[in-house]
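Structure ticket #2291
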Amino acid sequence: MKLIIAIVQDEDASRLISELMNEGFGVTKLATTGGFLKSGNTTLLLGVEDNRMQEGLGIIEKICKSRRQIAASPITMGGSNGMYSSFPIEVTVGGATVFVLTVDQFVKY
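Resolution: structure written out below.
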C-alpha cells in the first residue's frame, strides 16, 4: 500500500477531488498555504493499493497543469528605511507536488 501526498493549487483541488472520487479513490483534504506566494493550496492524502498507484498519479497529472501568472513581488527600497514597494513578476503556478510513501500498516476502526 502507498500513501500519495499531493499538494495542489486551490484552483485545481475541487476538480481533482471529484475525478479521484469518481474513479473510486478515497481522498482526505487538508487546507494549506504556499510559502512563496502565500496563496491557498490544498494537500490531498490518498491511501492506494500498489496496483492503483500509477492510475492515481495519472489523474493528478491530467488535472493539475502548471500555468504562468502575474504576481506582486515585494522589494525593500532605501536600505534600513523599511520602505517597501512591489513590482509585477511572472511566476509558474499550478501543477502538483507529489510524495509517494510506502505504508507499513493500515488500520481502519
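Closing remark: The chain has a mean pLDDT of 84.
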